[in-house]
Design a protein that fits this description.
This protein is α+β, with helices and mostly antiparallel strands and 269 residues long. The chain folds into two domains: 14-79, lambda repressor-like DNA-binding domains (434 Repressor (Amino-terminal Domain)); 94-267, 2-Layer Sandwich (Beta-Lactamase). The chain has twelve helices and five strands. It has a five-stranded antiparallel sheet with strand order 2-1-5-4-3, with helices on both faces. The longest helix is centred in the middle third of the chain and has 16 residues, at 166-181. The termini are far apart.
Length: 269
């Protein structure tokens, strides 16, 4: 009598599971990602299922094709058994002096308008003098390094009572954070914390159909003071270091003449 055998299916490796997660987060088919990485779709399938293990160069190429942040590229390499390829410097160290000077210039040059340096989850790293004058008007205290500026807008115990158009801008901010959570797991924890705030609907994290408008500024009102602000976000475009890539500079601008006059008055003390 003949004998038959059943092949044991491969068990996905940590690298394979992580690769599959990021591919799906980017909404790419195996064929599309394989084409971008210039490998065969069969090879990619074997990497995801654990039938093949990647070389270091293949792991780096796939991370690049997925456009992962540097921190997540390191995580993908480590899942494959390799050392991280990108360093994470201390921004207060001597090697980061040029970065600090650039950040200080961007913050100071924006006066009389507020500007802040934050990490990817909106934890405050540094603010310019106009920001330090504005924050106590809303919060009745000076800002501290580590304050989460995004959470403050949704927290009833912080700035939320003074955000008059949260129903308009809240869904936009939550959806933007949900997109960031696809490539930065730390944003998922912040997203959960925001969605747990009273009166913040879960559906805000889903895609929204926005009305036509030039801008959706945030409107703050307290004790007769009214500010309508929009912002831009700057990054260091050639960063090859984890900490430097994760540094964001947010510049706030007045959306109307009244807000401009108010900011100039606050800047003068």
């Amino acid at each position: 009598m003949g004998s038959s055998s059943t092949a044991t299916p491969a068990t996905p490796t940590p690298f394979g599971r992580l690769l599959s997660h990021w591919r799906k987060a980017r909404r790419l088919s195996q064929e599309a990602l394989a084409a971008d990485a210039e490998i065969s779709s069969r090879h990619l399938s074997f990497l995801e299922t654990g039938r093949s293990r990647p070389g270091q160069q293949v792991a780096l190429v796939l991370a690049s094709a997925l456009e992962l942040p540097l921190r997540e590229r390191n995580a993908l390499l480590q899942a494959a058994g390799f050392a991280p390829a990108y360093e994470e410097s201390h921004l207060d160290g001597p090697e980061a002096a040029p970065v600090r000077r650039a950040v200080e210039f961007l913050l100071e040059a924006h006066a009389p308008y507020p500007a802040v340096a934050v990490d990817p989850t909106w934890n405050l790293l540094q603010g310019n003098p106009p920001f330090h004058r504005l924050w106590p008007v809303l919060m009745e205290r000076q800002p501290q390094v580590g304050d989460n500026l995004l959470l403050a807008l949704f927290d009833p115990a912080q700035a939320r009572p003074y955000v008059t158009n949260l129903d308009e801008i809240g869904p936009i901010m939550v959806r933007r954070l949900a997109r960031q959570a696809l490539v930065d797991p730390r944003c998922e924890a912040l997203l959960d914390e925001i969605l747990a705030q009273p009166g913040v609907p879960q559906e805000w994290r889903r895609p929204q159909v926005l009305p036509s408008a030039l801008l959706f500024p945030i409107v703050l009102e307290r004790d007769g003071l009214r500010l309508s602000l929009f912002s831009t976000i700057a990054t260091l475009g050639t960063a090859a270091d984890v900490a430097t890539e994760e540094l964001y500079i947010e510049h706030f601008f007045p959306a109307d003449a009244e807000s401009e006059a108010t900011l100039r008055s606050l800047a003068q003390g």
